[in-house]
Amino acid sequence: MSSRIRFATATLAGLTLVTTLCLAPPTFAQAARTATAQPAPTAKSPDYVEEKGFKGKIFEIKYRDPYGLLQVIRPLGSGFKGATISVEQAFKTLTVRDFPENIAAIEEAINRLDKPEAPRPDIEFSIHVLIASNSPSGLEDYPADLGDVVKQLKSTLKYKSYALMTSAIHHSKEGPSGVSNTGVAESNLFSSVPTPPNPIFYEYSLELISIDSASGTTSVQLGGFHFNMRVPLNMGNSVQYQNVGFRSPVSLRQGEKVVVGSTTMGDKGLIVVVSAKVLK
What we know:
four-stranded antiparallel beta sheet; 13 strands; elongated
């Protein structure tokens, strides 16, 4: 607001001349310039939180994998800047820094989920890889318990003789990790390999293992059985490897021998037989 200052100058003919001046306070213009010179404060992002709004707590995980629990409880965090959930595997702990209400929700979830797992039975897998030949005088060499399987194969496939390439027994439990194995096959089982022989590599894996007893008969389910073999081939003056194999889901009834897949390699055939037994 402006100030009015009155100055009496003189008295003439009975009249008093009065001069009125309107003066702005000397500090107003300076304050206005200072206000316009300062930048406006930056708006804080929606996920900004003052540090004093957070609390911290360490949870000891007794039974479950801390990393597995982390994936479950992570959505219970606020998601605000500065909120964290970290794992220390050596001490089996989860450290949470967040709002008190989020920490309370995480603590409730941990108390509910960190329980001892029910014991899972072992599963014994028997793997047999057979090499089949069209030669009637081929070597017949395979385990006696595969006699019925080979008899059925001879009536179904064109091959006349069968020999064992490799056998293995694996123990596992239900879960996604499964079983895997690698090895080198004997080259004398294959007539198409170069001379001198190059190694023949094979690998297989059993994935997504589960036990199904809903029908009253126990069976083992494989989400996928993968078999691959790298076979050397003569290509003029060089040797090149060819991949042969297959992948398929498999259902195995208790103790049943199942042909899970087959493939051809020149004049030879490759057959994989798998059986499973749930150990009580």
